Prior knowledge:
Layout: H1 8-27, H2 40-51, H3 86-98, H4 102-128, H5 131-143, H6 145-150, H7 157-176, H8 180-196, H9 203-213, H10 224-248, H11 251-255, H12 260-276, H13 287-290, E1 297-303, E2 308-313, H14 317-336, H15 342-362, H16 381-395
Antiparallel strand pairs: 1-2
Helix pairs in contact: 1-4, 1-5, 2-3, 3-4, 4-5, 4-7, 4-16, 5-16, 7-8, 8-10, 9-15, 14-15, 14-16, 15-16
Amino acid sequence: MKLKPLQKKNFLILAGLMLLINLAAKVTKLGQPNQYLFDEDMHAFTASLMAKNDPRAYEWWHPALNQEQNQYSYRAPAVEWLHPPLAKHFQALSIKLFGNRPFAWRLPSALAGVGVTFLVISLTLSLTKNYWLSLLAGLLISLEHLTGVQSRIASADIFLALFVLLTVWFYWRLREKTTGPRLLLTGLSFGLCLATKWSGLFLLPGLLIFNWFYQPTKGKLLKFSQRLQKMFLLNFAIITVGLAVYLLSYAPAFLLGKNAADIAELHAQAWWYQTHTSFTHPYQSRPQDWLIGQKPVWYYYQPTEHREEKIIAQPTVWLLILSELSLILSATKLLKNKNKHQKTASYFNQNLLLVGVIASLWLPWFFIPRTLFIYQLTPIMPLLIITLSNLLSQLKILKFF
C-alpha cells in the first residue's frame, strides 16, 4: 500500500494541528506540582529576582538565601549564576506578565518545547523534502519523554535545544545559498545558543566540519585556498554576531549598576566552578551512560493513596537506541559516499551535517570533569530523531512515505 503524495496545504494543516496539540499537552496542568522542581529553586528563583530588577541575580557570592524561602521552596533558594542569563530573561518576562508562580516560570519552557517540535519538522523537511517523514519526526519528538519533561520545568536545556536546532537549520540553508540576511540570522541564532548555556559552543566544531567538507550539488569543489577563505569569512561573521548577542544578554546587568569588571569576575567564578568543582549526586551520570538512557533524574515524587506521582527526566530508551543506530548507519554511508552526482552529494551533505553536529555536541562531555546529568542530552535528542527520519528517506525502507 502506498500513501498518496501529501500536498503542501494538507501538510501545513496537519503540522499546525500537531503543534496545537503539542502546545495543549505542554501547558495542561503546567502549574503542578505547585512547588519548585529540582533546580527551579535556583533558575526560577533567579528569574524572579530579575523580574524585580534585583541586582543579586548577577552576583555569585551569595550563599543559600534562607530568608527568601516561600511556599514553593523545599530548601533555601539560591542565585543561579553558573549559566548565561537568556533563559532566565524569558522566565522573568513571564513572571512579570503572570505573577511569580509555577505556571509563569514554566510557560517559556513549554513554548520553547513547541518551538523544538516546529524546528524538527522544518529541518527534516529541508533535508528530506518529504512531508510525511517530516510529520513523523514531529510526532516522535512530541512523544519523546526527556524533551517533554524539559518542556515543563524552568531550566535552560530546552532553550538550548531550540536554539541549536535553529542554528543548524539556518546554517543548512545558508550553505545552500549564502546571503546577507541568512548569514545574520545564523549568527543571531548561534548567539542565542551561547547566551543560554556555554555548552552551545560545542555546536561550532560540527558546523565548521560541515562547512569544510560540504560538497556542492552543482559545479565543482572549490580549491583549498578558496574553501579556506570562504570558511573563514563565513564563520568569522557568524561568530562575531554570536558574541555580540551573548554580550547583549548581559545588558540588564549594566542597567542595574554592574560594570564590566563585575561581569568579568562573574565569568571567572563560573569558569572556575565548571572546571574545578566536583561533587557526588545520586542521579549523576557520564556521557557513556546516556547511550542507554541512564541514569534518570527524579525531579518529583509524591506517593498518594491511589497512585504515585512522579516526574523523571529520562529519554525514551527505544527511540534513543533506534536513533543511535541510525546515526551509526548515517556515519557509515557518509564514509562510503562519493560525489558522483547531485543526489549522492545531497545525501553526503545531509549525513555530514547531522553526524558532525551530533558528535560535536556529544563528545566534549567526555572531557568535562564536573558532575553531569542525563538532561544534558536534551539538545541532542531532536537531532537524533531527525537523523532517524533522514535515514529512512535515504534508504527508502518505508516506501509508502
